[in-house]
Amino acid sequence: MNRTITRRLLAAVAVTGTGALAFAGAVPANATDDLTDLVDLKSEEVVERSLEVAADRAELAVDTVRELVETGQAMVGDSGTLSYTDRFDAPDGHADEPSTAADVPGDPAGGSKPGAAFTVYLDFDGATVQNTEWNRSYEEDVFELSANAAASDADYVYQVWARVAEDYAPFDVNVTTTDPGADALYKTSEDDGEYGMTAVITDTTDIAPADQASGRAWVGGFGNEFLSPAMIFAPIARDSNAPDVGNIVSHEVGHTLNLGHDGIGDDEYYGDTLAEPTSLWGPIMGAPWSTPLSQWSPGDYSGATNTQDDLAEITADTTLQTFAAFDGDVMWNDIFCTDAADPNNPQPGDSAYKPAGPADNPCAEIGDELTLKFYYAGRAAYAADDHGDVLDDATALDNGSGEFTEAGIISESGERDVFSLVTSGGPVTISAEGASVGANLDINLELIDSAGDLVAEANPETATDLASSPTDRTASGLDAQIETELETGLYYVRVSGAGQGDPAANTPSNGSGYTEYGSLGNYTVSGTAAPFEADPITIISPEGGEEVQPSPVEITGSAEPGSTVTLTLGDEVVGEGTTDDEGTWSIVLTADLPYGESTITAQQTVGTIEVPETASVTLVVPVDPPTIVRPVDGDTATTATPTFTGEGLAGASVELSITCGEETWAGTAEVDGEGAWTFTPEQNLPNGECTVTAVQTINGVTSAQTEPVSFTVDVAGDDEGSEDGGENGSEDGGDGGTEDGDDLPDTGASMNPLVLTAGLLLLGLGGALYARTRRSVTS
Fold first, then answer.
1. Residue 97 CA neighbour count, 13 Å, CB half
2. Which string of b and e fits 696-706 if b means at least 16 CB within 10 Å?
């Protein structure tokens, strides 16, 4: 059994009079009989409140949480924090040899998606864990996590990495074994959009969080330094069995993205019941130890205990702010006093102090100031769509050599990736293959003609390969292939995810049905077809980056003799012509080019075949400086915030630079549809001589700077101006009063009322989370 750590629960705040010191988190009373050894309680009211908070955060009914606690399946910790005692069994055994390397893009050290906004860092080298929620919850200053010895085998590392990379392929997540640094892992503010989670794969199993657990993570902690890292205890995973370790990493990182467990019937995990050899499918947030196909799930199978939409939860636009108190560099685990408006949820700018008053009124006097540190957690986002989903937006397959290949990702349910293929006819073979290890994508492959009619389709039946190792099951039928004869023409290849069977027929021991919901991941389209013989289309003039006037603009190039050439600017056709017998063409654009950069695309049609390959050129229409209408040279402004006006190109952005003495202010104004702009600075300008200049930017091109316009600021009675730009000239930028505040009314209090709060609590997390433990009993 996992060790239960008792915690004090948050009491309701009671304030008695103006400026009185309120008290939260009183000394706990004895525990109630039915919750003995799980939590220390002050009153039944506090117990009920904590259960309600835990249920709300976990999106569970209060009665469900109460039952989990009373049956020993979970505990409610400080301020309504829910922690599962997770248990599930893995079959005995260990994979003899790693499978062949997965064809996942990238590599462990370089990452699966370099440059992605979010990161999952697989740390096989060990780590020191301190000043985190793990330390506070288990009352241990430091946890030392050793390296994973199995990681000396590069194939093992690749296998783990490839599985995790495939599970997170639908998202803008880079899975890497190279430490990306704190900036890429920790969300430092609500606006910080680059963060992630460290998953430490360790051989350490003799610390409290590892008590017979195969993995631990704080739910909802993705990007939160205080809630890092996720921990994977590799020896428990059938002695560092790569498929199991990869599954556990994905599961634990899923918890940090706020995902709960996927169970079935009476089983907390789908997979608790030993799977039959033919069992095919299991959810990532279950226990898919012995099934070859694991996917994200919305709980759409028979007997599901959790209908959480995994994909929506992972990509939710949400931020959680949490906090902890520190005495210097040491985490403060006791009650403290605060001036926060809500003592249970301090905000940046609030203060905290050690209590120094008597037991019945601890905040009657305050001691040393504590430091409140704030942490942030968020979610991930889908990867950018890499191929069009309709015929008109198809990606052209390069068939010039008679062979073609193109990689892609199905990242969202219902997504269709479309490719165009031109052939002179004859035998055609098209294959679509997913990752060879840990694939989540069951591929449906279609071949469509230029009229949009289906020519052929392939989606083989998927089944467990009973000849594969029980500790590394694989499936057949996930890939798809089409072989056929075609006439000369343009065709389209469409790739999508597929489901199979009826999830309503699934049982705890046999998952045979699944929908296309979780059929996501990497794939490669490849094949052979006789190339279509046509001279490639080119643009000869103007050259890329050349400056031109809006009109007239002549474009020249080469293509297949007798072909029709069409020029487009975005979705607009701006010219059409025919290639002569020498293969040259010349077209004058029928529309004026806008100011700034414009990209012209040329495409040829040979007979009735629109050749997918295109040529393009980017041209530049120069942008003149904007006009400053007001002030004119020599004007005097009688206000410290004068309004600047002018004219520019409709839709352009005007950037102003205002200099007074040695100080310079920047401002931005948008040009409206009538070609006018206006700007009023928020800061007060000081009295004296000033100048203003401006530039305008449109379609990626910035003009030259205007000539400086000189003007004078002369505000009566304000010879010096405000020291920091505040409206009232106060030294600290306040609304009024003198430096020492003598002009302010005496309220009888020097600060907001101090409130005692339980810093020990996961209350210290603000929107506190709950930890989950994956437990495995293995030999």
1. 3
2. bbbbebebeeb
Q: What sign for the dihedral angle of Cα 379, 383, 384, 390? A: negative
d(CA 360, CA 354): 15
Please give the sequence-ordered ranges of beta strands (E in DSSP) within 158-280, or none if there are none. Answer: 173-176, 195-202, 213-218, 230-233
Same fold, 105-315 and 627-713: no
Residues 126 and 202: beta-carbon distance below 8 Å: yes
SS3 213: strand
The kind and range of the H/E element at 595 are none
User: What is the rounded distance in angstroms from the CA atom of residue 608 to the CA atom of residue 606?
Assistant: 6
Q: Can you name the residues that pair with 693 across neighbouring β-strands?
A: 657
Question: Are 134 and 344 within 8 A, CB to CB?
Answer: no
What is d(CA 216, CA 218) in angstroms, rounded to the nearest whole number? 7
User: CB–CB of 456/482 below 8 Å?
Assistant: yes
Across 758-773, average pLDDT: 37
- The H-or-E segment that residue 51 falls in is helix 44-58
Length of the chain: 779
Class of domain 391-528: mainly beta
In sequence order, which residues have a C-beta less than 8 Å from that of residue 150 and are 6 or more positions away? 156, 234, 240, 242
- The lowest-confidence range among 31-45, 253-267, 364-378 is 31-45
Residue 552: cis peptide before it, omega within 30 degrees of 0: yes
What residues are paired with 178 via a beta bridge? Answer: none
CB-based contacts of 537: which residues, under 8 Å, 6+ apart? Answer: 557, 558, 559, 560, 563, 565, 602, 603, 604, 611, 613, 614, 615
Per-residue burial over 280-290, b = 16 or more CB atoms within 10 Å of its CB, e = otherwise: bbbbbbbbbbb
Q: Which of 2.60.40.10, 2.60.260.20, 3.30.930.10, 3.40.190.10 would CATH assign to domain 627-713?
A: 2.60.40.10
Q: pLDDT digit string (tens) for 466-522?
A: 888 777 888 999 999 999 999 999 999 999 999 999 999 999 988 889 999 999 999
- Report the C-alpha gap between 331 and 512 in whole angstroms: 50
Q: Among the listed ranges 147-151, 403-407, 769-773, which one has the minimum average pLDDT value?
A: 769-773
Question: Where is 574: in which H helix or E strand?
Answer: strand 572-578
> What does the domain layout of the chain look like in residue ranges?
32-84+320-376, 105-315, 391-528, 538-621, 627-713
Dig out the tokens for 447 from the structure: 């071949």
The pLDDT tens digits of the residues spanning 75-128 come to 454 545 555 655 545 555 544 444 444 468 899 999 999 999 999 999 999 999
Angle at 691 between CA 690 and CA 694, to 5 degrees: 150
Domain 538-621: give its CATH architecture.
Answer: Sandwich (2.60)
Please count the other Cβ atoms lying within 10 Å of the Cβ belonging to residue 296.
Answer: 25
| CA distances (Å), origin 331, targets 170, 324, 328 | 38, 7, 8
Task: Answer for the pair 233, 227: CB distance below 8 angstroms, yes or no.
Answer: no
Provide the CB-side half-sphere exposure for 701 (13 A, CA): 19
CATH architecture of 105-315: 3-Layer(aba) Sandwich (3.40)
The verdict on pTM exceeding 0.70 is yes
Residue 369, beta-bridge partner list: 353
In tens, the pLDDT along 172-184 reads 999 999 999 999 9
447 forms beta bridges with: 456, 493
The two three-digit tokens of residue 560, written as one number: 């297949």
DSSP E strand boundaries for 443-541: 443-449, 454-458, 463-464, 475-476, 480-486, 489-497, 521-528, 538-541
The SS3 call for residue 582 is: coil
Whole-angstrom distance, CA of residue 679 vs CA of residue 38: 62
Strands 426-434 and 454-458: unpaired
Please report the sign of the dihedral spanned by the C-alpha atoms of residue 62, residue 63, residue 69, residue 74: negative
Closest CA to 289 of 239, 243, 230: 243
Q: Are 238 and 90 in contact (CB under 8 A)?
A: yes
